[in-house]
Amino acid sequence: LAEARGFTANADIALLDLGLPDAAAGLDALDQFLKFAPNVPVVVITGADPELGIHAIKAGAQDYVEKRDVPNAAMLQKTIRFAIERARLHALARTIINAAPNAVLVLDDEHRVIFANPPAARFFGQADGAIVGRPFEYPVAAGQTSEVVVSSAPETTWLSISSTAIAWEHVAATLIMARDITERKRALDLE
């Protein structure tokens, strides 16, 4: 694992054997790898325990193969191709969401923010990243659109907030889309 640090900058994929002698135990090896190479998709190689592979995917791996299947070149090649493509699509989706002019947030079942794109912090008057982990203070009902006033921003801002129920990492969550309608509200006030 220590030797991999120098080779990951331009890697298309990493095959990580969770049983390497210098690796931390199990998923700790994956965690260590993802800390120094967060943009490299990982396929983990497990022993005979498929549960470890499933946990690895939840922890950030793109896929897993059991050690006994590594000699099956066709299957390994397919796993690698699919992992690279999934990672590419995830990166593309992340780029689109982060570049969107509107706020995109995901709330857990207790209405805490578990994901927010960069405009979300600006729309809700928070520092970048500070909104994640905090309760979402505005009323939301799945499938509904509402207008709210945010006065914690540099100036009073009107937002149109839409929400819908989604599954986020295999758990029920709420997707929030918010767009700034302040100019429209001001124009209506002038009429």
Supply the number of helical segments. Answer: 5
Number of DSSP strand runs: 8
| Rg estimate, integer Å | 21 Å
Helix content: 25-40%
Report mean pLDDT, rounded to a whole number.
Answer: 86
Distance between the termini: 66 Å
Strand content: 25-35%
| Uncertain residue ranges | none
The secondary structure category is: alpha/beta
The biggest sheet amounts to: 5 strands, antiparallel
The ordered H/E elements are EHEHEHEEHEEEH
Categorize the overall geometry: elongated
Strand order of the largest sheet: 5-4-8-7-6
How does this structure look, described?
There is one protein chain. By secondary structure, the protein is α/β, with parallel strands linked by helices. The protein contains five helices and eight strands, in the order βαβαβαββαβββα. The protein has helices at 27-36, 50-58, 73-99, 118-123, 182-190, and strands at 14-17, 42-46, 63-66, 103-107, 113-116, 145-150, 157-168, 171-180. Strand 4 (103-107) and strand 5 (113-116) form a beta hairpin. The longest helix is centred in the middle third of the chain and has 27 residues, at 73-99. The radius of gyration is 21 Å and the shape is elongated.
